[in-house]
Design brief:
Helix content: 40-55%
CATH superfamily: Glucose-6-phosphate isomerase like protein, domain 1
Structural class: alpha/beta
Number of domains: 1
CATH class: Alpha Beta
Radius of gyration: 18 Å
Number of strands: 7
Amino acid sequence: MSKYQIDYYKEVIKIIKNIQKNQKNKISRTAQLIKKSYKDGGILYLFGTGHSHMLTIEAFFRAGGYAGACPIIDKRIDFTSGARKATSLERTSKLANKILSKYKFNSKDILMIFSNSGVNQVPVEAALYAKSKKVNVVSIISHDFSKIAPLSTINKKLYEISDIFIDNHIPAGDSLVTINEQLKVAPGSTISGAFILNSILAELAGKLSKEKNIPFYISSNMPNSKKNNQKLINKFSKKIPHL
C-alpha cells in the first residue's frame, strides 16, 4: 500500500473517530427527533446540492434504509444539466423556494440538509424555507469550513439556522491527502456524511425496534423481503413522490 493510500485511510479513520466522540449526543438527539416525527406521521426530507446531493439518495429506498426518507430531487441541484451550471445555481437566490415548494411540508416533518461549507445560498435558503413552515432543520456541515467560507447574500450560516447541526469534522476545502504545497486530494465529506446519516438511522431503528412493523427496507435479494417492502411502499407512496 502506498503512502497516499495510507494517508487517506488514516485521515478517514481519524474523522470517523472524531465524529463518534464529539457528535454522538447530537446523533442521538436527531434519531429521537426523527422517531417523534415518524410517530406523528411526518417525513424525513433530505436536501443537498452538488456532491452533497449523493447523500440524499444514500438514505432513499435501499437495503437497510429508512422507509420514511424522501430526497429532494431536482435537476437544477444535481449534475443532470451540467456540473458548472449546478455549481452556479447553488449560489442563486430564491431557487430553494421554487424547489421545495413542490413538496408538501408540514410541522411534523424534518428537513435534513447536507452542505459541507454550510454557507451557499440554496442550502441556507432551504433551511429558512423549512423554518417558515415550522419544520425542524438538521444540518450536516463542516464547522471548520463554515467559519472561513464566504457568506451568501443572506449573511447567515446554515448552522445558525438549524435546530441541530452535526459537524462532519472535515477540514476546510474537503480534501484530506497532501500531494505537494499546492495540492490536496481525496475528499472526505461523502464518507463522513454517510457515516453520520447511517449512524442516525441505525439508532432510529433501535428506538423503533419494538414496533410491529419497523419502517426499514430489506434487500430485495433477500428471502421474504417482498412482503415487508411492499407494506412500506403502500404506507409511504402517497407522501413520497419518488416511490
